[in-house]
């Protein structure tokens, strides 16, 4: 496997300090360096990419710049199909997200769909605080609905744990939403082997956590969703 270079500030000698990047041309310069390093490692790398993409994974994650999907999973260009939005939501009226999912499932035939939230999510926090933010308030209403749905569990928790738990609940609800989409129902009905996973990423330690709501069919979706909620409730009881 080709190891992609990480372009740290020390790699950018001649291109200016990372902290003082104010000129958009710096990004073009960084790209030229990145491309050069890859070609030196594997001269045919980009030629291979031009033929087709064949990812096995679809990643649905948060837009937060601290959660770089390819880097934290150690995957190369062409190996991960990605959709990102604020707070990693899967909404049945969001044609952008659903178009990505349909293309990934029906055309690319990915084997795994990963819905990944992260602790300390600004979208989740904004939904809890319920302050007026503008247009995004309409988007965050979906998280507010999750808050109200699980208020009996969340209301008993201290603030920090409440935030983390709502981040996890949000992922579980999005797994459930995706599993009930017409795209996934059709795929599973025709016997296509595609699995939905729910993960949470810790920005504080760089680790991914499996929330154990993995679904391979409509039946397992219901079972794992209910079990996941039970596990969260039990986890809270153990912390009392």
What is the number of independent domains?
Answer: 2
**Overall 3D form:** globular
Structural class based on helices, strands and sheet pairing: alpha/beta
Helix/strand order, N-terminal first: HHEHEHEHHHHHEEH
Please tell me the CATH architecture of the largest domain by its name.
Answer: 3-Layer(aba) Sandwich
Give the radius of gyration: 20 Å
Catalytic activity: hydrogencarbonate + H(+) = CO2 + H2O
GO molecular function, one term: carbonate dehydratase activity
Function: Reversible hydration of carbon dioxide.
Cofactor: Zn(2+)
What this model shows, in words?
With 240 residues, this protein is α/β, with parallel strands linked by helices. The chain has 2 domains: 51 residues, no CATH class; 187 residues, 3-Layer(aba) Sandwich (Beta-carbonic Anhydrase, Chain A). The protein is built from 10 helices and 5 strands. The chain has a 5-stranded mixed beta sheet with strand order 2-1-3-4-5. 24% of the residues are buried. About 2% of the residues have low confidence.
